Amino acid sequence: MALHAKQDNPMPQHIAIIMDGNGRWAKKRLLPRTAGHAAGAETFRKIALYCREIGVKYLTVYAFSTENWKRPQEEVSKIMSLMKDYLLEAIRDMQKNHVRINFFGDLSALSPELQALAAEAGKESEIYADSQVNMCINYGSRDEILRAARKWASHCAQTGEDPDSLTADSFSRLLYSGDIPDPDLIIRPGGELRISNFLLWQAAYAELYFTDVLWPDFDERELDKAIEAFQARNRRYGGI
Ligand code: IPE
Ligand code: IPE
Ligand code: MG
């Protein structure tokens, strides 16, 4: 499927998506919320492939937040089991499509099986450089920033380096997103107008795009619309 947005206009190099609205999508269909998560996982696959096809180099998706553990145990288990199935397929998909997969978040809270699959997916795809998916699992931006601050503090304590030598660039490198550029465009489907603890530091100059479309209904055309909206923005970065 071709991109409808104008290819001669600047394309976002990095798109980040808060994949929200699975539960409401299911509710509308009188299905259990978990059916919405299964449908959302399919949408993710479709959109990840489309991003690769149209030349978006980095795609970062918010799949499970540090706050999502508050949900009923049954829902959390189903999400984790979908992640497992997805990771197994992703390993195959990535080999075929040459997509690198990377994880943002504290994976140590996941089951050993899931941790092993994530490590395998990361390792097997390390060689691919054209297209990268960052999957945020047990991710919270405040947690990410705190971890980076602690890393810096212990580095200084161990090496005697002056804490004041820290710069915005060197701090960025301590985040999960360390070696990749900040998102150009952050998309939130599902109708909520908030960031929900996602990429707080990295979003400093991201363009934001909100849509009422629920994540399982989001498709290539919706992504085109978001890219078109992005292309119509004037990014000033504080200048004129
Ligand atoms: C997003 O969809 C998926 C996760 C947060 C895991 P939701 O489950 O939040 O769906 P809504 O917002 O309740 O519709
Ligand atoms: C944000 O969605 C987290 C993910 C999509 C993984 P939530 O549904 O958890 O966010 P809130 O609760 O509406 O802020
Ligand atoms: Mg939600």
Task: Describe the structure in brief.
The protein is α/β, with parallel strands linked by helices and 240 residues long. The chain has helices spanning 22-28, 33-54, 73-97, 112-124, 141-159, 168-172, 220-231, and strands spanning 14-18, 58-65, 100-104, 132-139, 185-188, 207-210.
By DSSP, the count of extended strands is 6
Poorly predicted regions are: none
Main β-sheet, spatial strand arrangement: 3-4-2-1-5-6
The largest β sheet comes out as:
6 strands, parallel
What's the total helix number?
7
- In percent, how helical is the residue content? 40-55%
Structural domain count: 1
**CATH fold annotation:** Undecaprenyl pyrophosphate synthetase
Percentage of residues in DSSP E strands: 5-15%
Q: So, CATH architecture?
A: 3-Layer(aba) Sandwich
Shape: globular
What is the subunit arrangement here?
single chain
Name the ligand types. Answer: 3-methylbut-3-enyl trihydrogen diphosphate, magnesium ion
CATH superfamily: Decaprenyl diphosphate synthase-like
